[in-house]
């Protein structure tokens, strides 16, 4: 059964948070609860959320984490390279963007992710891929032909690499070695902007077409 996927563009950065529900089990997971999460919280009020999965720990992806955690009681999953970012405003960037938010401090995540790991959550089998470059601990999550990739790959663009811990060469390796190995029909749900597919990015993304030459 295909997951039910709802998108919420949150806060000044218009960061995509995703609610992914399994209609068969009645359970759901949340990806990247961003800043100003009121719309997301309203949608979660009657959902059985069993996990909060973080693609990475920049402020715009974790700004609503405390609220979503309090509402749902769900455990949090993050790559160990960014575990400390949850508790440190300097690392998660909220100290830098103080004009947009108060310092963000969250409790540590209950679970740490590993490349190649398989999670069984909400009746879904979720494949974890470590896809660094935008940030050191960036991860992408694959459920069937749905990939939740954070700020790695966008529709006809890629994630920025000028923030602390970012690296352009590493990002391109992640895209080439991990994301482009997915089936062409895989739908990519990015951290910002519209969804796309691997096939569309191979055809029209100037950063990706360069890798295919």
Automatic annotation (TrEMBL):
Task: Give yes or no: UniProt keyword DNA-binding.
Answer: no
Q: Which SUPFAM superfamilies match?
A: Metallo-hydrolase/oxidoreductase
User: Needs which cofactor?
Assistant: Zn(2+)
Q: Where is the Metallo-beta-lactamase domain?
A: 14-192
Which keywords does this chain's UniProt record carry? Hydrolase, Metal-binding, Zinc
Q: Does the keyword Zinc apply?
A: yes
**Catalytic reactions of this protein:** 3',5'-cyclic UMP + H2O = UMP + H(+); 3',5'-cyclic CMP + H2O = CMP + H(+)
Role this protein plays: Counteracts the endogenous Pycsar antiviral defense system. Phosphodiesterase that enables metal-dependent hydrolysis of host cyclic nucleotide Pycsar defense signals such as cCMP and cUMP.
* Protein name according to UniProt: MBL fold metallo-hydrolase
Organism lineage string: Bacteria, Bacillati, Bacillota, Bacilli, Bacillales
